[in-house]
Amino acid sequence: MLAVSIIGIYLISLLVIFFYAIIQFRLAIAYIRAKKKIKRAENIACDYFPSVTIQLPVYNEKYVVEKLLEATVNINWPADKLEIQVLDDSTDETRELLKNLVPKYQQKGVSISLVTRDGREGFKAGALKHGLSFAEGEFIAIFDADFLPDPNFLLKTIPHFKDPEVGVVQTRWDHINRNYSVLTQLQAFALDAHFTSEQVGRNVNDFFINFNGTAGVWRVQTISDAGGWEADTLTEDLDLSYRAQLKGWKFVYRGDVLSPAELPVTMAALKSQQFRWTKGGAETFKKMALRILKTPGIRFSERVNGLAHLFNSSVFIFVLLLSISSVGLLYLASDSYIFSVWLDWVAVFFVSTVFLFFYFAVSFREKARFPWLLPVLFLMRFIQFLTVSLGLSIHNTRAVLGGYFGKKSEFVRTPKFNVASNGQQLVQNSYLSVSIHWSTWLELALFFLFAFAVIFGYKHQIYGLIPFHLMAAIGFISVFLYTVFDPRKR
């Protein structure tokens, strides 16, 4: 019975990951096919100048908010058609900093206002909703505190709204500190794939895509028609995106318009961001899955890809189950039948890896600065990414399960530190987190489990699982050490 359960968990996890890999592979293929057509559509002249409100939701961002305001007030748009709302929910020195900065820009003739609230009801969604209630613009552009918008951002995005069916234009994130550390390089590796293969692939196939929470523009009518900002998930952007598209609104993705921002530079900051994204994804899947299935007029392929999109974060559950059950398979390997079953299915794991390899390679190839080193650099980065993803699986699984079981948690901001280069340190930074969650110690325990599995496999000459178990061991110990020591060391 135990053997059947272990094999069952392993195979189910393998099939879910395989399905996820196929979806991502197909999106990468769609991106490659659409590249030429996309380039022809990018050069659109702006002859349409409606009123625009730029919203800047801010919460305790004293290190980056000054640069945000400086970049935002320099956006090119007719002055009488533009207003800027700084939506400040801060409880630290950021509030006073903004009270000094905003009047200086007002004195220069900039239409900018500081909007504050009593408390943080609804968190970011609540701040956006509050500002929207008295915004004057027909369109709403949103930038998080660490973003540095392109001066021509509106000139490149607003023309798409001449089509009355377009509700959102999303642009691509760029990363001002992608080379700060291995941690930021791995994040850039994953996000580049999302903003290249995935977003473009979904958009050209008319599948559901998502507003990424920042660096995009909404038609106010679209927000209202979809029911407005709601705070019952941690990913208010993903939630509203699906409600709007189910209402028939079109989304446009501009992968050529870059909006630079800062990547999290500590493991604690990355974990807080990952927790919010993965838990919010599960909450949105739970909220929207039946609506996707029941809403009439949607193609079958749209429904499948939409459900798969919302289910993406849940893959971490199956990554963790696959990892742990593979250790069980190792112990059962003395049974020739069980071992032969594992050998039959290991090809599925290999094919899944090849599909994901291709998905990430498409975007990595476009960013490579040294084409002749591309195969070596990509293989190294891909293995590093899979290794750290394994290490984060326990943290993200906890977040996803919390989303499905309805456990409510606060919207924890991702702290930004205004660092761009490797030489900049985080000494005496007040946003550094040193608290250790209990799941961090579980990461250490899993390191010992997989390290033992490597030794056991070698000793009993069962070599097939050793590479996977070695990656898992390195992943869990890396995440543990980064979590415990990185903030204190810096």
Question: Could you please describe the fold and organization of this structure?
Answer:
By secondary structure, the protein is of the alpha/beta class. It has two domains: 200 residues, no CATH class; 224 residues, Spore Coat Polysaccharide Biosynthesis Protein SpsA, Chain A. 58% of the residues lie in helices and 10% in strands. It contains 16 helices and seven strands. It has a seven-stranded mixed beta sheet with strand order 3-2-1-4-6-5-7, sandwiched between helices. Strand 2, helix 3 and strand 3 form a beta-alpha-beta unit. Helix 8 runs parallel beside helix 9 and helix 13 packs across helix 16.
Summarize the entry for a quick read.
The chain is α/β, with parallel strands linked by helices. It is built from 16 helices and 7 strands.
Write the SSE topology.
Elements: H1 2-42, E1 52-58, H2 65-72, E2 82-88, H3 94-107, E3 112-116, H4 123-132, E4 139-142, H5 153-157, E5 166-175, H6 182-204, E6 216-219, H7 220-225, H8 236-246, E7 250-261, H9 267-294, H10 300-311, H11 315-332, H12 336-367, H13 374-391, H14 393-404, H15 438-459, H16 466-489
Helix pairs in contact: 1-6, 1-11, 1-12, 6-12, 6-13, 8-9, 9-10, 9-14, 11-14, 13-16, 15-16
What is the CATH topology classification name of the largest domain? Spore Coat Polysaccharide Biosynthesis Protein SpsA, Chain A
Q: What is the total domain count?
A: 2
H/I helix tally: 16
Strand count, sense and barrel status of the largest sheet are:
7 strands, mixed
Shape: globular
**What is the strand content?**
5-15%
Helix content: 55-70%
Q: What is the architecture of the largest domain at the second tier of CATH?
A: Alpha-Beta Complex
Q: Report, as a whole number of angstroms, the end-to-end distance.
A: 50 Å
